[in-house]
Amino acid sequence: MIDLLDTGFRFSAVICCALTTALVIRDARRQLAACLASALSICTIGFLVVSAPGMGERIGQWMVLPEMIGMATPAMLWLFSLSLFDDKFRIKPVHILVACVFWLSGMAVVVEYYYLFGHFAPLSPADLHAAVRDAGSGFYISKAIGNGLKLGMIAHMLFTAWQGRDDDLLESRRKFRATFVVGGAIIMGVVVFSLSSAAGLSPESVQLVDMAIAAAVMTIVFYLMWNVTRIDSEWLLGNLNEKTPDVVVPITEPADALDLERLNELAANAALLEQGLTITKLADVAKVPEHRLRRLINQHMGFRNFSDFLNHHRIEAAKDRLADTGERHTPVLTIAMELGYGSLGPFNRAFKERTGQTPTEFRRGFLGSV
After folding, report:
1. Global confidence as pTM
2. Secondary structure (3-state) at 323
3. Which of 85, 171, 250, 330 makes a 20 to 30 Å CA pair with 102?
């Protein structure tokens, strides 16, 4: 029964991963998150293949190929999670270094097995670890490095998801953050446990752990696929966006228009320049429920998170002050502090991101043209 359930979960997860990859490549192939989602789906397929009971006996030495792909799954999950929850995420050399070191630490076990037995291992990761665990210190060093990096990546991606929850203006993503933190911690904990301790468990227990992993992967990928797919084929089901004639949906609700006017008034009166301003504080000042304010800023003003909204107004105010000849001797740090920034670094980064120049370069260029 367990074998049947494991096969069902594993097969379903592979199909979902393959379909998710195809849909993402079709609709959003140029976006970083889409590329990472595709890479994660492919690596997950590799992981599901190599961890399947009896798969090594079926494919033999070719097992090393899905092993090479599957070893990168935790690193791809880490990078995809960062791109999912951080709108400004870009892959940096440190990300590549961590991912490569982690992958090499996993592949070191495969190489060590080849060194000991003269052929590549047609084994699952758990069985592979069990086969070389007493071969020497090299296994324990590579295992310690891999598990240390894995735990670090888990902690980092869960921290990123939790840290940005208050700042997020996309309601569906904001709700998903808490689920991701709890579910991600449990699932990755099971994976770490299975790869590091499964050799000491009974065969039945190992089967249950493998089945739980396959079920968890299938659930996650199905959830992602559910949110990726959309029905837009009018020839098949008609126009799903068409409203019935007796339902009138106004473009902008009167209450939204008044709330937006109130928000613009606060921006004009420098209320957005308060240091440490949060969306909760702004909702109190504007006398607007927080959930309405989030929707207003996101849907009617086009900002995905509260920090971008604040930076937009603050950088516009900074440009006016830096271009003012009467303030040509006012230190940039003073301007940054008066515009709500706690230090010069975040101000410089936000300013350059929006103008392509540092505040000093912007002021020098503007005053030089006067």
Report:
1. 0.71
2. coil
3. 85
